[in-house]
Design brief:
Radius of gyration: 16 Å
Helix content: 25-40%
Number of strands: 9
Oligomer: single chain
Order of helices and strands: EEEHEHHEEHHEHEHEH
Shape: globular
Distance between the termini: 18 Å
Strand content: 15-25%
Structural class: alpha/beta
Largest sheet: 3 strands, parallel
Strand order of the largest sheet: 3-4-7
Number of helices: 8
Length: 165
């Protein structure tokens, strides 16, 4: 039996409507105006929330991966690309204000503990654990310690991994 859970201003349970989340992730391509357009579209189609992702690049990726050649609008390495797609505090503050003004919830999938700490500054309504992180029990426990609802994605997971989480 599914218990009731509140995310934002919506109660989610077996007898209530679904909670629709528009997956923005990094599809904003590092451009705040693109993020605003994606938020506008989510609002236009009556989504309840938009979801981004947050990574501390030098924690999630090792030096070799960051130095790997990968041409992009941000430079010639994978690190240039990864860093170019990440929003900083000021940009997330603008997203926070924009979502509040437009009455749509927002939250993130943090990929590391420093990203959780970063996101806590915005008093998130919940966290989403990416399916790639489902085996990262340390991260899951850290997110759990913040006493917020957790949405867990299982798309890249085996049943065994889901049972362990």
């Amino acid at each position: 039996m599914l218990k009731k859970i509140k995310i934002g201003n919506k109660i989610i349970s077996e007898s209530n409507d679904v909670y629709l989340v528009a997956e923005i992730g990094i599809n904003h391509n590092g451009d705040l105006n693109n993020a605003f357009k994606l938020i506008d579209n989510a609002k236009k189609y009556n989504f309840d929330a938009v979801k981004f992702q947050k990574r501390t690049i030098n924690v999630v990726y090792d030096k070799e991966e960051l130095e790997r050649f990968r041409e992009s609008p941000f430079g010639k390495t994978n690190g240039d690309l990864k860093n170019g797609l990440e929003f900083d505090y000021e940009e997330y503050l603008k997203i926070d204000n924009y979502c509040k003004k437009n009455e749509i919830d927002w939250f993130c999938s943090p990929w590391d503990e420093a990203s959780v700490d970063f996101l806590e500054k915005f008093n998130p309504i919940c966290y989403k654990l990416a399916s790639a992180s489902i085996t990262n029990i340390g991260l899951l426990e850290y997110i759990k310690s913040k006493s917020r609802p957790i949405i867990m994605s299982t798309g890249m997971s085996t049943l065994e991994e889901i049972d362990k989480a």
